[in-house]
């Protein structure tokens, strides 16, 4: 009985310490948690710049355009498939590119249906486009909170052909990495990305990767 009481006392003290640490250091801990979602490789020139779709305000493509104009890639690659009803991402993206002075012949894209309809399916189609152009390296541009998971997916899919992946984060004006829990939209998206990251890593563990 005495041992049980001592055990409960130890557990109680430990829990109290954990709560105290969480209360005192929750901001650094939560910021570090969101920071784990970000990957930023050293930037250098590549054959192409791949921009992932999915943000609401064009920040990803704006960063891809900036890199292209600074000479980091010879063309911009994206998946331009269906987003809603009869409308494709390509319809929206080509408009943004044209407004920025980028012509269609400076891009390479596909509007084919992807399976699965997620980052993996988009990656498979983007890599098909890259390989059809003979690309050996590319800069992968996506929102900062999405870079670690996206980079892991592209690393795995290019592991056997030696294609070089350089992951580059784009700032997202609607999602804040720092103090993300203080903003409703940022908290929702960061929390969802943390869930997806955990799920992908669990699948990798179960498959022995």
Could you state the order of secondary-structure elements as H and E? HEHEEEHEHEHEH
CATH architecture of the domain at 48-170: 3-Layer(aba) Sandwich
Over the alpha carbons, how many angstroms does the gyration radius reach? Answer: 21 Å
Instruction: Tell me the CATH topology of the domain at 48-170.
Output: Rossmann fold
* Average predicted confidence as pLDDT: 91
Main sheet overview? 5 strands, parallel
**CATH classification class of the domain at 48-170:** Alpha Beta
Low-confidence stretches: none
Number of strands: 7
Distance, first to last CA: 46 Å
| Count of alpha and pi helical runs | 6
Strand percentage lies at: 5-15%
- What is the helix content? 40-55%
What is the CATH superfamily label of the domain at 48-170?
HUPs
Question: Helices and strands: which structural class?
Answer: alpha/beta
Tell me the overall shape.
globular
């Amino acid at each position: 009985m005495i041992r049980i009481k001592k055990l409960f006392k130890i557990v109680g003290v430990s829990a109290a310490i954990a709560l105290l640490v969480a209360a005192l250091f929750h901001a650094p801990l939560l910021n570090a948690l969101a920071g784990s979602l970000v990957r930023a490789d050293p930037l250098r020139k590549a054959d192409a710049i791949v921009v992932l779709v999915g943000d609401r305000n064009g920040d990803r493509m704006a960063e891809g355009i900036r890199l292209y104009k600074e000479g980091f890639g010879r063309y911009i690659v994206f998946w331009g498939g269906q987003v809603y009803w009869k409308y494709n991402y390509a319809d929206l993206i080509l408009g943004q590119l044209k407004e920025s002075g980028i012509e269609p012949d400076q891009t390479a894209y596909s509007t084919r249906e992807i399976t699965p309809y997620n980052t993996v399916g988009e990656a498979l189609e983007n890599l098909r486009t890259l390989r059809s152009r003979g690309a050996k390296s590319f800069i992968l541009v996506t929102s900062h909170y999405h870079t670690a998971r996206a980079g892991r997916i592209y690393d795995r899919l290019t592991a056997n052909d030696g294609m070089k992946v350089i992951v580059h984060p784009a700032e997202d004006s609607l999602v804040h990495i720092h103090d993300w829990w203080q903003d409703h939209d940022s908290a929702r998206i960061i929390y969802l990305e943390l869930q997806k990251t955990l799920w992908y890593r669990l699948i990798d563990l179960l498959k022995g990767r």
